[in-house]
Amino acid sequence: MALILQLIDDMHGFMDKYGDPRTNPWFLMSSPFPTLVICLSYVYLVKVLGPRFMENRKPYELKNLLIAYNFLQVLFSAWLFYEIAASGWFTGRYSFQCQPVDHSKHPQTMRMVHACWWYYFSKFTEFFDTIFFVLRKKFDHVSTLHVIHHGVMPMSVWFGVKFTPGGHSTFFGLLNTFVHIIMYSYYMLAAMGPHMRKYLWWKKYLTSLQMVQFIGIMVHAFQLLFIECDYPRAFVWWIGMHAVMFFFLFKDFYNQSYSKPKVRASSPAPVQTEVPVLKAKEYSNGVVRNGYSNGVGNGVRARTVLPASN
After folding, report:
1. Chain CA centroid to CA 28, Å
2. Burial of 45 (0-12, 13-18, 19+ CB in 10 A)
3. Average pLDDT, whole number, for the chain?
4. Could you tell me the pTM of the whole model?
5. In a domain, 256, yes or no
6. pLDDT-based confidence at 251, cuts 50/70/90?
7. Which structural domain range is residue 45 located in?
8. Can 149 be counted among the known catalytic residues?
9. Does residue 10 lie in a domain region?
10. Could you tell me if residue 21 is inside a domain?
11. Catalytic residue (choose from 149, 180, 220, 242)
């Protein structure tokens, strides 16, 4: 126990020495442990505690809440995109090839530092995507991809805000918030009900956009392995490998959802009757199937084929 406490103390000493002094006193930034505990609690909640709580309960109807939540996420993502762009990337102050971290307290620089913290905070608000799935008893929506994507991001972004708030790595946030504007707009429309289904033909391309995003992040990060830039090489690998991991996870989902041929079974002398069957599935953060948004269905009706009576 004494050894563990000594290691924790040494780690905090390292954080204080090399962490950015501008963000160190901010909420949740002095130590990585609060963020780690929140992330682990999220995983336990959505994979264990939540399903147990809902086991003998009916699914909650959350239509209006989901519409409001997704609308607020659209606004939040749009504001973050604007802040990251207006404090650096769209002002001419930032270079897309190499952008070191500015450690000054210039007003424009501090605007970017604050945007980085709010981007970190937004990763916690996205936990509600999964919580709504659980409350709707859509447990199969809580996939490995979904939980990894949501559970890893707060911890990953914490290190960026702690050590490099601003500079090259904020390109990740610029692309990600842009994608989230489109993504949560889709979820909001899908949550409104079946009458919006005709406007949601582009669900397949949402996953494609996510993959394009990760390719852009990979190229932007890994270019620093071949040019001289005053930016920590460790964060080049950290950001780049995250993009690689998520790209292949999303690619695997895309192949399973959209690339595999559908096999239809034959039936003798069928008589067709219609019964309402909820078959739709959808995952948040661009992982979408057949019109479910944060646990809200689009009213799919499936045809059931029955044998003819004699």
Report:
1. 20
2. middle
3. 82
4. 0.79
5. yes
6. confident
7. 27-307
8. yes
9. no
10. no
11. 149
